[in-house]
Amino acid sequence: MIKKATLKTYFLTGLLVLVPLAITLWLLGLVIGTLDQTLTLLPEAWRPERVLGFYLPGIGAVLSVGFILIVGIFTQNFIGQALVQWWEGLLRHIPVVGPLYTSVKQVSDTLLSSNGNAFRKTLLIEYPRKGVYTIAFLTGTPGGDIVNHIKGDYASVYVPTTPNPTSGFFLIVPRADVVELDMTVDAALKYIVSMGVVAPLVPHHRAIEPTV
Which residue of 80, 143, 164, 189 could cross-link 75, Cys pair, CB 3.0 to 4.6 Å? Predict the structure, then answer.
């Protein structure tokens, strides 16, 4: 007869296998379902379910990725870049829409640009008080009128929350109080989402580089 402790072990082992798989499939379904909603932007006669005669899950995601690639290819040439500049200039002159578009573009250019340093360095800082540490990501250096009110070398950092790293806090901290970690952003995000359970195997600390 199987002992109660053995059954408990089997059950927990099954959970360890199935829970990550279930969460992964749920997240994939959420992403695919969201991208499939883009099909509603197409005219009724052009929608895949009308053309194929049945609903095909994921086709919206495929079409979205394909559309993004086509736009990227098109805007690499002179004509495409000229059209983008004309379009952006038109949007900037529209009240409310212009400032909003400009702000979103600045953020996206900073985060997605291959030449930028935003969210490419994992940091260790003391927060929310001395003696308590947390992981943060370097986002840049302070700018604007802020530099007229702080003395010394400071860094702009983003402190994500657990287990949802998409929300967090923006802090301006002295660069001397910031330690750059030998840890990839992916590894740091796993560490944060798991609430410290999935720790990097080989942590290594070194001083943050003087340039951003």
Answer: 80
Distance CA(117)–CA(139), nearest Å, equals 7
Under 8 Å between Cβ of 48 and 39: yes
DSSP-derived secondary structure for 13-35: HHHHHHHHHHHHHHHHHHHHHHH
Residue 211 pLDDT greater than 80, yes or no: no
The CA distance from 194 to 121, in Å, is 20
Answer for the pair 184, 121: CB distance below 8 angstroms, yes or no: no
Q: Take residue 167 and report the two structure tokens written for it.
A: 């929300």
Counting Cα atoms < 13 Å in the Cβ hemisphere of 161 gives 6
Q: Would you kindly state where each structural domain of the chain is located, as residue ranges? A: 122-207
> Do 138 and 150 meet the contact criterion of CB atoms below 8 Å apart?
no
